[in-house]
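Weekly modeling sync, notes
Attendees: S.R. (lead), two postdocs, one rotation student

Agenda item 3: backlog of single-chain predictions. S.R. asked that every request posted to the team notebook include the full sequence so nobody has to chase files. The rotation student volunteered to paste the first one in as an example of the format we agreed on. Action items at the bottom.

Example entry:
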Amino acid sequence: MNHQTKYWKSLDDGRIQCNVCPRECKLNEGQRGLCFVRACQDKEIILTTYGRSSGFCIDPIEKKPLNHFLPGTPVLSFGTAGCNLTCKFCQNHDISKSREMDKLADKASPEKIAEIAEERGCKSVAFTYNDPAIFLEYAIDVAQACHEKNIKTVAVTAGYISPDPRAEFFKHIDAANIDLKAFTERFYRDVCSAHLNDILETLKYLKHETEVWFEITTLLIPGENDSEREINEECEWIKEHLGSDVPLHFSAFHPDWKMLDKSNTPPSTLFKAREIAQNHGLRYVYLGNIHNFSGSSTYCHRCGETLIGRDWYELSTWKLTPGGECQKCGEKCAGIFDGLPGTWGRKRQTIEF
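Predicted structure, as returned to the notebook:
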């Protein structure tokens, strides 16, 4: 369904400029932006995927990944189609790069999504699989419907969004995972067709101007963004600009889409990255796409006690008070906790509307 938008302006040459993301696509009548879902129609920008999804699924919140936001609880996840980045390694390219809008079979109003989440006992709804920045209007309406039922909202995003829409979007978001894809302009330019500084501005905005709980994920790709120098620079920047309490996830790469010539990330690279981050004073550093108890669990930064033990997405140890303090020494663990953890575990449930 086509839906009117407001983040655009008319240019002197007759084109319409989309202002949702820093790409600022300039479109003639009938053209679509790089994201493919925002189009110029009747001299304005419309969203062509409002109310249409590539599928709904209930996942553990840890799969987003979010380890410090309502641990163990189920989240209703969905996305649409398209993306405003061109990452050559995209692991959801069948969705994010889809040009077949008929793939969007599931049609659901914001109110219906909130209703289903409530019926299935989901504590939150996540905008994921493709970047919610490009379906901003739909995501905001879903968020408002969810909040009316006391259901939280989660954004899984690359953070490539312009200041004004960024402020409006995150006003409706409770938690986010920001995909910090690398820490060089070269990588963002050549691999993603974007710019590093725009993502760093989003991270600083979230930390200093919002109450959104957020965590960061970096997928380590052999020979591309996994050098010790680059990891050191990333961790140093995070510590300086965001502080010690923002959880950082280093995830293992596997060959996909246009990056089939790269090998899987060796576990040793992940272990070294975690060590570097901890040496910079980052308190919560996790390893993803690898089975490793210590790299998945949460520890008290004061006394070292295991606060949340994790085996993949199954929670074992739980040594937090209802207020999120270490039961052993009383130190606060950063995050959003709600008493006892959930028990959703590794389950994955497809939902049909």
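Discussion: group reviewed the output briefly. Residues 100-104 have pLDDT under 50 and may be disordered.
Action items: rotation student to repeat for the remaining queue; S.R. to check formatting next week.
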